[in-house]
Amino acid sequence: MARRRKDSRTRSQSLGRKPRRRKGPGGVAVPRPFSVRNSTIQGKGAFAWRWIPAGTRIIEYTGERITEDESDSRYDDDSMERHHTFLFSVDDEIVIDAGVGGNEARFINHSCDPNCEAIDERGRIFIEAIRDIAPGEELFYDYGYELDEPLTPSLVRQYPCYCGTANCRGTILALPE
User: Fold this and answer.
1) Which of 34, 123, 135, 141 could in theory staple to 46 by disulfide, Cβ–Cβ 3.0 to 4.6 A?
2) Secondary structure percentages of the chain, helix, strand, coil, to 5
3) In this structure, is residue 132 part of a structural domain?
4) Residue 73 and residue 56: Cα distance in Å, rounded?
5) Beta partners for residue 117, in sequence order
């Protein structure tokens, strides 16, 4: 059995206290425009450390690509007191589990009044700014989580939203139109 070498980064670096570098045009290393730290909304959050103009592609949401059935077996919502996963549904068959091999995109929290959106580009998910984002501002997108069952007050409580915006719907669930 092959052993994986431990990553040489320190724990604080892997949590994004120093902006991670990625390859930009021409293979030049470019730091991410955000870092990860504690959020007042939920656990960890992603915070801009420089201006991010509207339309900027910020990061790809990565992780292990699994089936819907595999995601259901890994995370049993019924047994959770409160829903918490790093899953992103790509389509009816494929789910990205950022809890396994995912990157810092998994720390972008939900808001009912987001400054980012998730873009599906041929099965790859990218987070893009939908308005200018100031340094220090937390990054958010609307999770719009969909369930295959009728919404009940109990389900809404299981999937709470803590964004506190004026138009907060009180849940990360997508409400019926």
Assistant:
1) 34
2) 15, 30, 55
3) yes
4) 35
5) 128
Instruction: In whole angstroms, give the CA distance from residue 45 to residue 152.
Output: 28
Contacts of 154 (CB under 8 A, 6+ apart): none
DSSP 59: E
Cα(58)–Cα(157) distance, integer angstroms = 31
pLDDT digits (tens, 9 = 90+) for 63-109: 999 888 887 776 655 555 544 567 888 888 899 998 889 999 999 99
Domain that holds residue 39: 25-114+125-158
Per-residue pLDDT tens digits for 117-159: 999 999 999 999 999 999 999 999 999 888 878 888 888 888 8
State how far the Cα of 90 lies from the Cα of 80, in Å rounded to an integer.
23
Which position has the token pair 């599906």? Answer: 120
Identify the bridge partners of residue 37 per DSSP, sorted by sequence position. 45
Does 90 reside within a domain?
A: yes
How many domains are there within the chain? 1
Is residue 172 included in any domain, yes or no?
Answer: no
Phi then psi dihedrals of residue 109, to 5 deg? -85, 170
CB 44 within 8 A of CB 37: yes
Which pair of tokens denotes residue 135? Answer: 């340094």
